[in-house]
Each structure stands twice: as structure tokens, then as C-alpha cells.
Write a structure and sequence with these properties.
three-stranded antiparallel β-sheet
Length: 271
């Protein structure tokens, strides 16, 4: 069945480009016009708009902030799963092993947490390999995915990265209407907090300093000047000699930062 929404025009795409950049810091290059159409087509239909111009007019009204958030979620949501890029978790485990005799509190921030898989993967790792106190904080620009992270309910098909020990220790198997799902155990959920944060804007929260900050699969969507601003700002929340993680498709090489590369996609904060 053919879509009832006509193709997005270059002029319409330009309007969305500007809106998305202003609201999220993400820049969609011109060749992403099909991606924008595919991500938002259903929302255009659901809201009864005849085309993308009408939908743009709708989501820029003050009374439609929830629909604007929904649109941004559809555009910015990326594939995520437990223990993604296993080399990073190997590094964290070794880092924790080197602190086997310490009892100081360790703090970890998943700065692009999406629906929570990364944050809970970090929480499982901290709880399993560190004897002292710890906390994990997760943030994302989208309120809807943050709510899903707090609920911590995931379909089995997205939990393949969880090994048997972690599954038995930290996951509850769904029954009845939740057959085929797992939920993160309440003991772990209570030690992971989430909040909605736009990393391209000033953060009005008293977050303190972190030992580890994960910002993976985000900067590829930012222009260089936005990357610089975000990384420089996040470094204010990282302890000296703390570690900053990006995805293996990203790099801080071209940015002016106080980081040094220690492993692929892992940087130490020096100043």
C-alpha cells in the first residue's frame, strides 16, 4: 500500500534540518533526506497532517512540545543493546581489578543512555567486579526513552549480550503478558538513576565528578564545532585521570581537548 504522505521537498527538509540542529545539536546532511522521511512518515500520518510542511507547522507550536519530543526521538534513536563494543567492558573490568583493594565510591555516567542498556551493562559490571560503593547515572535528550530506561523491560532478542551469570543475577524473566521479555532486578535498578539532558545546552544539575564517562555513537551526528563544545563541557564533570569512551567509529583526534588516547576509542583526561 502506497504511503499517503508525499515525498519531502528540499525546502521542507531544510526546515527540519534547522529545527533538529537547534533542539538537539544534531546536523542531518542533505543525503539524509530519505532517513528523515522514513523516521517521521508514520508520525505525519498519525497526526493527520497532509504533508511534512503541515507536520512542521504542528510540532513548532508551543502546545505541541510532546509531539516535538516524539519527532526528535524517532530521528535520534539509535540501535542499542547490552554490552555493546565488548572491548570497552573488558577495559572497565581490568580497571576495576586494579582497584580490588580500594573502597572509595566510583561514579560512572552513560551520557547517551537511550533506553538504558548501556547504563545497566555498566551497573552489572560495577556490581560484579567492584567491592566498594558505586553509582551509575544515565542521561539522554529524549524523555520517552528515559522512561523506558527506568522501566528496564527489554525483549529477549535485545539481551543476547548478557552472559549467563549476569542474566541469572540481575535479570527477571517475564511471564504472562511479559513472556519473551526480561526486567532488570530491582536491586540493580535502585542503584542506577536517569535524567533527561541535552548535552548541547548548559546542564543545570549538580552532577559532581565522574570516574568514567561514556559518550558513544553520538558525536558522529554533530558538526565539529558542536563536538568540541560537548566534549569540552563534559570534561568538566570528569575526574583528573578519569576515562572518556566514544564508539570505535568516532575519535577526539581533531578536537582541542585535554585527553590522551590510551586504547582505541578510550581516552584519559589529563587536564
Amino acid at each position: 500500500m502506497r504511503s499517503a504522505v508525499r515525498a519531502i521537498t528540499p525546502k521542507e527538509f531544510s526546515l527540519f534540518q534547522d529545527l533538529i540542529k537547534r533542539k538537539s545539536g544534531i546536523f542531518l546532511p542533505d543525503h539524509k533526506i530519505s532517513l528523515l522521511y522514513n523516521r517521521l512518515e508514520r508520525r505525519v500520518l498519525v497526526r493527520g497532517c497532509k504533508d511534512f510542511s503541515a507536520y512542521y507547522h504542528l510540532i513548532t507550536q508551543r502546545s505541541e512540545t510532546s509531539e516535538l519530543e516524539a519527532a526528535l526521538e524517532h530521528i535520534t534513536t539509535n540501535e542499542t543493546f547490552f554490552f555493546r563494543e565488548t572491548q570497552h567492558f573488558d577495559f572497565v573490568r581490568q580497571w576495576l581489578a586494579n582497584r580490588a583493594n580500594e573502597q572509595g565510591k566510583l561514579r560512572v555516567w552513560s551520557a547517551a543512555a537511550s533506553s538504558g542498556e548501556e547504563a545497566y551493562s555498566l551497573a552489572m559490571t560495577m556490581d560484579r567486579y567492584y567491592q566498594g560503593p558505586w553509582e551509575v547515572f544515565g542521561s539522554d535528550i529524549n524523555r520517552q526513552v528515559i522512561e523506558r530506561a527506568r522501566e528496564a523491560i527489554y525483549p529477549d532478542v535485545r539481551t543476547e549480550g548478557i552472559d549467563q551469570h549476569n542474566r541469572m543475577t540481575y535479570c527477571l524473566k517475564g511471564t504472562g503478558e511479559y513472556q519473551g521479555y526480561i526486567r532488570i532486578a530491582p536491586e540493580l535498578r535502585r542503584r542506577v538513576s536517569f535524567d533527561c539532558i541535552n548535552l548541547t545546552e548548559p546542564i543545570n544539575l549538580n552532577l559532581g565528578l565522574y570516574d568514567l564517562i561514556f559518550l558513544r555513537n553520538v558525536m558522529i551526528y554533530f558538526e565539529k564545532h558542536t563536538q568540541q563544545r560537548v566534549v569540552s563541557y563534559l570534561s568538566r564533570f570528569l575526574k583528573k585521570d578519569g576515562f572518556f569512551f566514544v564508539s570505535h567509529s568516532e575519535s577526539l583526534h581533531s578536537l582541542n581537548t585535554g585527553f590522551e588516547l590510551v586504547k582505541p576509542a578510550i581516552y584519559r583526561f589529563k587536564s
